[in-house]
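[Meeting: bench + compute handoff]

Bench side (C.D.) handed over the final construct sequence. Compute side (W.E.) agreed to return the predicted structure before the next meeting so the bench team could plan truncations. Sequence as handed over:
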Amino acid sequence: MLKIYHQDELLEAGCDEAGRGCLAGPVFAAAVILPKDFFQITLNDSKLLTERERNELRPYIENKALAFSVASLCNKKIDQFNILNASIKSMHIAVKKLSVQPGMLLIDGNRFKKYKKIPHCCIIQGDGIYSSIAAASILAKTYRDDYMKNLHHKYPKYNWQQNKGYATLEHRDALNKYGPTMYHRKSFRLIYNDETNMQTIEQNFDGELII
């Protein structure tokens, strides 16, 4: 069972992002403040749930949360800031959009830049430990998936309705055949052919925090 709060004195917002490892599309982030009596037995890290389970949980989270918000940064901003900074910036925007001011932030992962004067705690695999982070992971994931499904109709050759912009073999083959679109992240090394084989994706998630 996931924990509701990290501590009892301050109102906490869980924060997580989705789409960090994709080749195309924006990165999404969500911030969620849950009531202390929140309980949902199936709530978990979004990666451990099916698409149907995530879509069923989203309205439940939104209805029960004291406050929630979702934000995103486009691929051009990712190329400008790097993916690490863009992920953190999108979380900052999500926190700013909350209708209730949290007293503390629970961040999934191990890197974050302080937002204003709000204390934060980085928790590796926090979406499998705290309910608020798990809820944020579900909102970020489902909103991003919906975005990529809609974008698929504009560029159906890449099958984003299925792969959501991740580096599947099908997506890499389409990139190799058709080249990148305006929604691909040019700062990522995209797939290309040489004389012997197709290179694998190389992404550097480590970078200087510049926000």
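W.E. noted at the follow-up: The radius of gyration is 18 Å. C.D. will use this when planning the next construct.
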